Amino acid sequence: MTLGIVETASGRLQGQVVQAGLHAARAWLGVPYAAPARGALRFAPPAPHPGWRGVRNAHAYAPDVLQPLDPSVTLVPSAEGSLALNIWAPPEGQGHPVLLWLHGGAFRAGSGRLYDGREYAARCGVVVVTVNSRLGPLGYANFGGLFADERFTPNAGYQDQVAALRWVAANIAAFGGDPARITVGGQSAGGVATALMLRDPHAAPLMAGAIVQSGTLNQVGSWENSLGIAQAYAQALGVLPGHADRLFTLPPSAFVQALHRLEQMRPRRLNSRPFLDGRVLPGRLETLLAGPAAPVPLLLGATREEYSLFVKVPDRIFPRTDRALLTRAMVPYLAPGQVQAVLAHYPDTPDGLVALGTDLFFQVGHDALQGAHPPAAPVFRARFDWGTRLFGLGATHGMDLLFLWPRPLGHASGLLRGGQAGRRSALARQLQAAWAAFVQTGQPGPDWPRYTAQHPAVACFDLPGLTVTTAGERERRALWRDALIPMP
């Protein structure tokens, strides 16, 4: 069933009615928020879309942005430069709160298409927006720094995400949303981008709340690191100094092939991520963390065994890791006595390695975000504890997504096989209701206290449901002292 015409700054759109069980929602898919990032705009900041004449059909997703065809993330072919978003809204009414969701995928893969917002729109009264933005070398390679060339904007993919937020603030009222009630949220890479937006003067004033899941500022790269990555990309692409023009004319497939080559040349590294450029982002991690953050409610979420995915199922993003690798990551940032205290706290066992990596790269980063958040703005913390038996992963990185998004993420839903389906469904509804309540009110529920240094309360989600605990929180923070240790 089609909908009436919606007017946006770029032109008119026609959406459709979609079913969510016994309920219905309105949907507009594949909506451009910026001009296609191709040709001369391949490495440019996102530009306003030129608009269109007549009525644009918004019934189908836009192609995913250019990325590897990766079974661990998406099986849909991609294309270059399609900067588009998707909108689901309640069946009627105006002034609904808005959730702008940023997908994960290590800034190398992923799509807003993987997160279907119809259930939140139909059952919870929330407008959901999901976004596609440039990834991999087209989104995050520091070619401008490498070649001293202003045509290559830094952090183009992150700039795309900010442009999407600005488009939503300017246009969402036409879809039934309230531009003064936009919560930005994301998981993994999307969580990193959300944490960056909290401190971005172009984004923070547009945010009424933030949800940061399994992403922290320690996943942002340094300038020096970004130059090394850009040099490796240039080598893989066969682009020599003085020949940066070639980067505008290479076929899109060359950049996918270069990403694959880099992941072979630079294992155990993040080869695509935002970097501290001194223009779009501050030049130092300490400056970024110390900068003013939007004084809005903040929800920080993690899973109990985040790091098990990277220990037990090595892939292109994080090949198999070990205790020595994590120790080397810590040494430059902790005093020798503190390094020894940390290592003594985590047993030299497979489970100890998972616990160490989970705290080092996720929980301690969230500690730093909580400690630097404006005191007047509430912070809530969540931990997802239900785990799968598959590969011994437990409550691994991304497991919470299978419960938060009512239409499981395609092939990943296989992690939910087994018994207790009814109890798992009840847990999913509880988790979804808490996230929707946070978007609506800035408070995830009456039984969920805010997290403070005096009372570090964490809401834990497992069968049979939510419990609140402070166990281990003070000990972890005393051990690590909120150190922000960059990912290698």
From TrEMBL:
Keywords: Hydrolase. Its EC number is 3.1.1.-. One of its GO terms (molecular function) is hydrolase activity. Gene3D superfamilies: alpha/beta hydrolase (3.40.50.1820). Residues 5-471 form the Carboxylesterase type B domain. The keyword Cell membrane does not apply. InterPro entries: AB_hydrolase_fold, CarbesteraseB, Carboxylesterase_B_AS, Type-B_Carboxylest/Lipase. It is an enzyme of class 3 (hydrolase). Belongs to the type-B carboxylesterase/lipase family. This is Carboxylic ester hydrolase. It comes from Deinococcus arcticus.
